[in-house]
Design brief:
The protein is of the alpha+beta class. Helices cover about 25% and strands about 30% of the residues. The chain has 5 domains: about 5-200, P-loop containing nucleotide triphosphate hydrolases (Rossmann fold, 3-Layer(aba) Sandwich), CATH 3.40.50.300; about 215-295, Elongation Factor Tu (Ef-tu), domain 3; about 315-395, Alpha-Beta Plaits; about 410-480, Alpha-Beta Plaits, CATH 3.30.70.240; about 490-605, OB fold (Dihydrolipoamide Acetyltransferase, E2P). It contains 14 helices and 35 strands. The strands form 7 sheets. An 8-stranded antiparallel beta sheet has the order 12-11-17-8-9-16-13-14, with no helix packed on it. It has a 7-stranded mixed beta sheet with strand order 2-3-1-4-5-6-7, with helices on both faces. Strands 18, 19, 20, 21, 22, 34 and 35 form a 7-stranded antiparallel beta sheet that branches. Helix 4 (about 115-125) links the parallel strand 4 and strand 5 (about 130-135). Helix 9 packs across helix 13 (about 570-575).
């Protein structure tokens, strides 16, 4: 007899409407009201601010169809909401292990994007049954027929079998809360979507009679009970109070289940027993990590551990040793930073942490700039102070030399901005694959070294007056090339500590763009602006106006140019090898590694001598 249970993941490129569609499902099944806040699954503060899903989450709904082969039979559906950005691909890879099928969401205008290919490749590798959902059909520029053909072509390119290519298609608008068999079928809510879950996604094929076997794919935390292991039961049942064995990376450990929680709506509820195939949250086992297998005592049989793709970007984390250290943060020492990074590594399987060249430094590797940027942002909100260096790509050594990661880049630009974009791509060693017109815009697909993406977004937006849409995802490893990329402009570096004065700012506006306004406090060695030329310039931005007995008459009021304000990711892209980004709970600053001008000049002479010796 088929079990009344389904496990389905929702996968897509970033901003294609996954979480909004989950809202519609929750409203259709009565878990939440249609008038409640949108994107209710995005509960993390950073997710709400950025409007993207960062952490994979799951919920459960009960659905009883009114007609069809499952009419009147309540079915429990576990829904797994996954991130859409390529930098959080590690979340997608481990969550898909808990699903039997997947909704592949594609924007009705944009079509398949780089992350669409990535998540689709992972889903096909796990043998998941697909339901294609063309979302945002309410867009005025929607073209669902073209998008459907592009999805089919993508599946063929990825080597999908005939059964997978015979996928069902639904047309939807998550924002308006409907899904149907055609773009005009918009009067039945998301009932057709739920029916496809029952018809297309198979019930879990697990053994409820055998000894317990569960792979931990996620970890949660409770202030009262500590660590909570989340996973899908592959075999047997989980009961509160039962003894278990944990097959960890370093051997077999013993534990006891304090509580077994089932997912119900947006929360969890205690259960007397959770059977095979269902998702469960287990409390009471502290010595547990992602990838461990929970088994019945005497039947220890470990499942394959969760594996994710290798990191492609790394940067140096170090203590904050600026003159302003300790003013805003609570956690300042290298020991506290090390503990926090290793704690993050337990939950974030795509993260790598290694000790640096000094006791105060750590090399942190991740899947991209946004991946590491979210970690830094979370740490600063928790009260940590630190300095981070310029992002650099990870290189790996092979028999044929060093290799570096390459990314697939997709750009949507206007016809007017196409020339500037092509010039930028050429300067950054990109290989253009195709140029396709879509409505009144042009889509450019290219391959580019990952290191050339650092700083590309800001330059691309400048070249296209803010109209370019840039997306990318990991493609392959290829032979490393010499990194000749550098910042075009130099910087203005403060020579004295103090507060920025209006008089000094007025004079320096002619030299470049300032990062600070009059009244801001700065220190020696802090970067206070961008030079109009390609060299670094040491300036006195705290210089006060000299007073005299001569009265000055000025006819015009002086208005300073607006200072440039940069986000954390923009600062990370902007800084060079001899610079750092100072991160505190309330401030972000750019600074030189060596704060004294004499030390920077001495280091520059040593660098020139090393280059001269290497060329001999």
């Amino acid at each position: 007899m088929e079990r009344p249970l389904r496990n389905v993941a929702i996968i897509a490129h970033v901003d294609h409407g996954k979480t909004t569609l989950v809202d519609a499902i929750l409203a259709q099944t009565g878990v939440r009201s249609a008038k409640d806040a949108v994107c209710v699954m995005d509960s993390n503060p950073l997710e709400k601010e950025r409007g993207i899903t960062i952490l994979a989450k799951n919920c459960a709904v009960d659905y009883a169809p009114e007609s069809g082969p499952h009419a009147g039979q309540p079915v429990r559906i576990n829904i797994l909401d996954t991130p859409g950005h390529a930098d959080f691909g590690g979340e997608v890879e481990r969550v898909l292990r808990m699903a039997d099928g997947a909704f592949l969401l594609v924007d009705a205008h944009e079509g398949p994007m780089p992350q669409t290919r990535f998540v689709l490749e992972k889903a096909l590798g796990l043998g998941l049954r697909l339901v294609v959902v063309i979302n945002k059909c309410d867009r005025p520029d929607a073209d669902p027929d073209r998008v459907l053909n592009e999805v089919f072509d993508l599946l063929v390119a990825l080597g999908a079998d005939d059964e997978t290519l015979d996928f069902p298609v639904l047309y939807a608008s998550g924002r308006d809360g409907w899904a149907g068999d055609s773009p005009e079928d918009n009067q039945r809510g998301v009932v057709p979507l739920l029916n496809q879950v029952l018809n297309r996604v198979p019930a879990p094929s697990c053994d409820p009679e055998g000894p317990l076997q569960l792979l931990v794919t996620n970890l949660d935390w409770s202030e009262y009970t500590g660590r909570i292991a989340v996973g899908r039961i592959e075999r047997g049942v989980v009961k509160p109070g039962s003894d278990v064995s944990i097959c960890a990376a370093d051997g077999i450990k013993k534990g006891r289940v304090l509580k077994a929680l089932r997912f119900a709506g947006l929360g969890k509820s205690e259960a007397e027993m959770v059977e095979a195939g269902d998702l469960v949250a287990i409390e009471g086992i502290d010595a547990i990590e992602i990838g461990d297998t929970i088994c019945a005592p005497g039947a220890e049989e470990a499942l394959d551990r969760v594996t994710v793709d290798e990191p492609t970007l790394h940067m140096t984390f170090r203590i904050n040793d600026s003159p302003f250290c300790g003013r805003e943060g609570k956690y300042l020492t290298s020991r506290q930073i090390r503990e926090r990074l290793h704690r993050e590594m337990r939950l974030n399987v795509a993260l790598r942490v290694q000790d640096g060249s000094t006791p105060d430094e750590f090399h942190v590797s991740g899947r991209g700039l946004l991946h590491l940027g979210v970690l830094i942002e979370n740490m600063r909100r928790e009260g940590y102070e630190m300095s981070v260096g310029r992002p650099q790509v990870v290189r790996r050594e092979t028999e044929n030399g060093f290799q570096e990661p390459w990314e697939q880049l997709m750009l949507d630009v206007s016809n007017e901005g196409m020339g500037s974009v092509m010039e930028l791509l050429g300067n950054r060693a990109a290989i253009v694959q195709s140029v396709d017109p879509i409505a009144d815009r042009v889509r450019i697909t290219a391959e580019i070294p990952a290191r050339q993406l650092i700083g590309l977004r800001s330059r691309m937006l400048t070249a296209t007056q803010g109209e370019a849409i840039l997306q990318h995802s990991f493609l392959r490893w290829d032979n490393a090339r010499e990194d000749t990329r550098g910042r075009v402009n130099g910087v203005l570096v403060a020579s004295e500590p103090g507060k920025v004065t209006f008089h000094a700012a007025e004079q320096l506006c002619q030299r470049g763009i300032l990062f600070h306004e009059p009244g801001d406090e700065v220190y020696e060695g802090q970067i206070v602006g961008e030079n109009a030329r390609d060299n670094d310039l040491t300036v006195n931005i705290v210089k006060a106006k000299a007073f005299s007995n001569v009265r000055e008459n000025k006819d015009a009021t002086v208005v300073l140019k607006a200072s440039r304000k940069m986000t954390l990711e923009e600062m990370l892209e902007y800084c060079e090898r001899d610079e750092l980004v100072e991160v505190t709970p309330e401030s972000l600053r750019l600074r030189k590694k060596l704060l004294k001008e004499a030390e920077r000049r001495r280091e520059a002479r040593h660098e020139e001598a090393r280059k001269a010796g290497a060329s001999l």
